[in-house]
């Protein structure tokens, strides 16, 4: 919850959509786990292939070739999945619930909302609004028309850590854990029992590498182009004071989760305590809230919440930042926020 300072406050929220159903977007080599490069499992794999794998696991155990305990094996026997193809990439019930719950926890009034063209983004916005407004939507909310294989990553995917994990995961068939757990939140997933903590850490590192060089600090162009949301927040706050996902990119634009050492294909063993972690910053429903407070003596202050936790803004003296400090931090971002110029510049590779 937002810590309430004395006086009035204005809030700007930036959030990823809630949990969605998987996509059915086959890629070349998609059947090879190591060639998938962190992409979500295809819809047909969940609907068609997983029941076949489930039956194969059970048959292997009946033949004396298996490593799951009796309880995990029974959970696997009981596992079923029913996702109609028309639900591809649509917002799942668990996603509706999590966005509604976030809205209930952020009870600040809503005057305007924006979302991308994706149905899951629009539905997430509506369910968030229902959470804020108590399961009803008001005419005062404006819903505008929505706007429209890295070698380094492949090196790690083809490396010994992933090879060992693929061997282990293939042996115990834990392919379905991620989506099964997200779609049916709060329920025990028999597929997750197939994964050890070490397996999960290696799989997470694949995503960490992917998003670090796709959306994060790996290339300057990634985080520089996320300047518009920062400009929007600064403009909104300035209009009040003066009287008038891209989640990973935006977090990088603010300077969050930046490690001293960049993750590489060969640094997995040394990065266990890294800040850049997709488990924290790229999950469904990840959100960032900027709050402008008007305190005693008409002093304005700013707070920033990432996933509902008060987060220190780099460059501010304290977690509650004086508006003058905040303005000085965002001014260079505003002055250099020229997407045409940014995208024409070649990216600077980070070794």
From TrEMBL:
Where, subcellularly, is it found?
Membrane
KW Transcription (keyword) present: no
Name the residues that span the membrane.
Answer: none
Origin superkingdom: Eukaryota
Q: Is Ion transport among the key words of this record? A: no
Q: What are this entry's molecular-function GO terms?
A: acid phosphatase activity; inositol phosphate phosphatase activity
**InterPro entries per record:** His_PPase_superfam
Protein name (Swiss-Prot/TrEMBL): Uncharacterized protein
**What cellular-component terms does GO give this entry?**
membrane
Q: Which organism is it from?
A: Daphnia galeata
UniProt keyword annotations, A-Z: Membrane, Signal
Under SUPFAM superfamilies, the record lists: Phosphoglycerate mutase-like
């Amino acid at each position: 919850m937002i810590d309430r300072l004395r006086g009035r406050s204005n809030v700007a929220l930036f959030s990823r959509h809630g949990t969605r159903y998987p996509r059915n977007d086959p890629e070349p080599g998609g059947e090879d786990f190591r060639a998938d490069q962190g992409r979500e499992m295809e819809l047909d794999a969940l609907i068609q292939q997983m029941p076949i794998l489930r039956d194969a696991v059970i048959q292997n155990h009946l033949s004396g070739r298996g490593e799951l305990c009796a309880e995990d094996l029974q959970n696997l026997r009981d596992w079923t999945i029913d996702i109609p193809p028309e639900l591809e990439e649509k917002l799942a019930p668990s996603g509706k619930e999590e966005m509604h719950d976030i809205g209930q926890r952020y009870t600040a009034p809503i005057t305007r909302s924006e979302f991308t063209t994706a149905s899951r983004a629009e539905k997430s916005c509506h369910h968030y609004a229902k959470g804020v407004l108590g399961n009803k939507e008001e005419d005062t909310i404006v819903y505008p028309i929505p706007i429209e294989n890295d070698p380094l990553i492949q090196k790690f995917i083809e490396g010994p850590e992933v090879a060992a994990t693929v061997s282990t995961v293939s042996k115990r068939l834990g392919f379905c854990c991620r989506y099964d757990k997200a779609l049916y939140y709060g329920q025990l997933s028999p597929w997750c029992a197939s994964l050890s903590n070490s397996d999960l850490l290696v799989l997470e590192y694949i995503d960490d590498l992917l998003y670090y060089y796709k959306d994060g600090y790996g290339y300057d162009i990634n985080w520089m182009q996320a300047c518009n949301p920062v400009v929007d927040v600064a403009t909104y706050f300035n209009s009040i004071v003066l009287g008038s996902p891209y989640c990973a990119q935006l977090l990088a634009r603010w300077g969050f989760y930046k490690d001293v050492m960049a993750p590489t294909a060969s640094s997995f063993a040394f990065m266990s305590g890294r800040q850049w972690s997709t488990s924290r910053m790229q999950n469904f429903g990840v959100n960032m809230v900027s709050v402008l407070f008007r305190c005693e003596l008409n002093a304005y202050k700013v707070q920033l919440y990432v996933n509902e936790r008060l987060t220190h803004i780099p460059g501010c003296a304290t977690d509650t930042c004086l508006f003058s400090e905040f303005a000085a931090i965002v001014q260079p971002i505003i002055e250099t926020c020229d997407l045409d110029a940014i995208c024409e510049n070649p990216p600077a590779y980070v070794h």
